[in-house]
Design goal:
alpha/beta, Aspartate Aminotransferase, domain 1, Aspartate Aminotransferase, domain 2, seven-stranded mixed beta sheet, four-stranded antiparallel beta sheet, 14 helices, 15 strands, 37% helix, 14% strand, binds pyridoxal-5'-phosphate
């Protein structure tokens, strides 16, 4: 398709967009009485207009029934997470038994590593990507230390080659091979938060399994953004948050995945809590933890219903839109934004050049573009903000923008280009 950096072209694209009506389902922040260009759905997704209604229903049930709401509410709180499972499983390519909504993301990463990082003999190492999201770095380090091991020797990072911004997949695969029977776990962000690089999770999983390691992914930037086939790829475990591409409220509940091949394993070590105990006998309150089958066995606590209600509101929208339509639009919308940025860059060469460090290949990225603004950086970002663009600044020198297919438009991309051009001048 030939793109044009004009309002007319952008509006034509919007007119032909099968998902265009979804924009109306979300609240957009305003700036000087105008809707902002909101390109930070990769950090905090916008609020669906239905969220308030669903949360109010639970508040109403609480007012009406008190504790009896656990059983009498229209959606009984006792099994509230079950209302989310099937919808969420579709988004991540999993079977319902493999998915549960519970806790927060970093908590879930820890709980899953307790089970899937079991250093023994010479098999003690974890492979991760360099410059992983800080919370993941801290979680990984503390897991290694928890087993009394040396972080420097046991936490192995794959970095971009000198002078490059992206990690070469071949380097990940060859490192896995090289570590061989010393490798206990591969734990990587499915989409890197800084560069927007999407890794081939199927290949990485296979390579990890070939040397006898477990393989898990942090999908904070992947869930609701790119197509996932966690079951088919044979991934051992994964976790993600719901507040980025999945629009489920600030700090909202997380989801976790445990492959069905582990569903009945009672031998896996885990930190247990009553909500992971067999629900038929949970209220007998007897000693002796009996884990539920599948992902539900990793729950600790009863559901934070208000947060889950927000998640439900968003999952209903995803179900209606469908990941296949979302993906189709994502590729075109992201390519259009890329085109607009490159067009602005070309016409302003003397003043400023941008380098998009996110992969060009649509199979290697999701909705995010990371822009290195040589020579301008933070000043450029601040100028964009003053014009009503909500993007995201990451030290040392990257502006991240994410045109989210559910609610962003081609016109947003065009307007971003206009603001970018003005910000340079
Ligand atoms: C956003 C994000 C987190 C945040 O973790 P919380 O526990 O939800 O605060 C962790 N890891 C990655 C890769 C992220 O992108």
């Amino acid at each position: 398709m030939t793109f044009e950096n004009t309002l007319d072209f952008a509006q034509k694209m919007d007119k032909n967009d099968p998902l265009r009506s979804f924009r109306e389902m979300f609240y957009f922040p305003t700036f000087m009485n105008k809707e902002v260009v909101y390109f930070t759905g990769n950090s905090l997704g916008l609020q669906p207009k239905t969220t308030e209604k669903i949360i109010k229903e639970e508040l109403g049930a609480w007012a009406k029934y008190g504790v009896e709401g656990h059983f009498l509410a229209q959606r009984p709180w006792f099994s509230y997470h079950e209302f989310l499972t099937e919808k969420l499983a579709k988004i991540v390519g999993a079977k319902p038994i493999e998915v549960v909504v519970t806790h927060s993301l970093t908590t879930n990463l820890h709980l899953l590593m307790v089970s899937f990082y079991q250093p023994k003999g010479k098999r003690t190492k974890i492979l991760c990507e360099a410059k992983a999201f800080p919370s993941d770095q801290y979680a990984l380090e503390s897991q290694v230390k928890f087993h009394g091991l040396d972080v420097n020797k046991n936490l192995i990072e794959v970095a971009p080659r000198p002078g490059e911004h992206l990690i070469r997949e071949e380097d990940v695969l060859s490192k896995i091979k090289e570590l061989g029977d010393e490798l206990a776990l591969v734990m990587i962000g499915g989409v890197n938060y800084y560069t927007g690089q999407l890794f081939d999770m199927e290949k990485i999983t296979k390579a990890g399994h070939d040397v006898g390691a477990n393989v898990g992914f942090d999908l904070a930037h992947a869930a609701g953004n790119v197509e996932l086939k966690l079951n088919e790829w044979g991934v051992d475990f994964a976790a993600w948050c719901s507040y980025k591409y999945m629009n489920s409220s600030p700090g909202g509940v997380s989801g976790l995945f445990v492959h069905e091949k582990h569903a009945e394993r009672k031998d896996l070590p885990r930190f247990a809590g009553w909500w992971g105990h067999d629900k038929e006998t949970r209220f007998l309150m007897e000693p002796g933890f009996q884990p539920m089958k599948g992902a539900e066995g990793w729950q600790l606590s009863n559901a934070p219903v208000l947060g889950m209600a927000a998640h439900l509101a968003s999952l209903e929208i995803f179900e209606e839109a469908g990941m296949d339509r979302i993906s189709e639009k994502r590729d075109v919308l992201t390519a259009y934004l890329e085109f607009v940025i490159e067009d602005v860059s070309k016409r302003n060469k003397e003043k400023c050049t941008f380098e998009i460090i996110t992969p060009k290949d649509k199979n290697k990225r999701g909705a995010q573009l990371s822009i290195l603004a040589h020579g301008q950086g933070k000043a450029l970002f601040d100028a964009l903000t003053k014009q009503g663009v909500i993007a995201d600044w990451r030290e040392p020198n990257v502006i991240r923008v994410a045109p989210v297919p559910l609610y962003n438009s081609f016109e947003d991309c065009y307007r971003f280009g206009q603001c970018l051009e003005k910000s340079i001048q």
